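Hi V.,

You were right to ask for the full record rather than a summary. Here it is.
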Amino acid sequence: MQRKPWIWGLVLILMISIVAGCTGKETQNANNQTDGSKGSESTKGSVELNFWYGWTGPEAAALEKIIAKWNAANPDIKVKGLSQSDYQKQLTAITGGNPPDIASNFGQDVVPWGERGAMMPLDDYIKKDGVDLKDYIKAALSTSQANGKTYAIPIAMHTTMLFYNKDVLAKAGFNGPPETISQLKEYITKLSIKENGGRLQQLGLWPGVDAYTFTNAFGGSYYDANAKQITPDNAGVKSAIQLAKGIWDQFGSEELDRFSSGLGQYMSAQNPFFTGKYAMTIDGEWLPTFIKQFAPNLNYGIAPIPYDDNNPSLKNPGNVTTSVFYIPKGVKNPDASWKFLKWITEPEQMGEFTAALGNLPTRTSLLNNAIYADVPGFKEFLAYSQSPNLHSFPATSFANEYMTEFTDQYNAILRGKIGIDEGLKKVKDKIQPLVK
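Predicted structure:
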């Protein structure tokens, strides 16, 4: 899965605004096509497409294999891949008039980028080539659409579950994972080990848990579409933050910072869950593939996200995100870009790519495909993906600004720099004016 650095959040917002300003000055020519319905620069002869994607390491290598497959069969359209996970550079290239010919991104960025002119609508191409959008999982496809337009095609769907080290839990007297929030708190306390004068040696679970995931465990919501009101102060959202804050305060920012400074890299054998530094972790469907590669002897299990004791109807909660491919605004050969995008999102290529990464496919026709038979963890995540309590962050034109501000205030709350009510009020005061 592509992992997005939040440090670029505010820069992205500024760059998107620049895109919006630039699009009003475009001329209707082949190099600034907006809807894919008009002619483009001739694709006859040899065309080279620059494909920027956010995956790195082994995941990038898997995508390069798919690209090589295309190049072997299509000598007239050569695709050159580049691992580029800095999304600021995508926007810089688009606003500068020199965009990549095709690129990857995250579903939560599609509406803000598309509505502000950074992504080319694909609907005319989809209609012309008869692409069956009904084959896509509705929740996944919805992240790529807004106001009747399709700005991207989702290649993979992501959600998270609870991973636990069976040996570590057994040593602490637990014969299975926690099922409820109250049990989760108990496990974290008993599984966190302090030595050498109170220094952390092992954490039950990193306390900066994903608030979006646990908001769904408490039945929360971030936006009231009917009232056109953002709701960061919703009771379920506040409960998720209170959960994280309570865990965080058991250890304190200073000790957590010291402990985390000695942890190994995520995509390596030194991943803190692989080495036993974390007894439990909340992670995505790609993690079992990493475990197979970096820690094949790890004795682990996969379980649902714990649910609120007072609301068992919200079992199996979670947050859904997607990885997507799109054609940036202003590409020189949109027809060639579409030809490759259409091909790489067809079932055969989608299956090869997502199986290699351990991701969930976005096409329903692939869900029971034999290509996933040997993908570790796929069965557990496939079953979990059917839960009615999985939700996506609201797809709005101001989603980037909202998530960035919420994340900033959430981190400030955890570190005790601001109170929960005050922090959430700051979010609401800053973002609500953007709704209009």
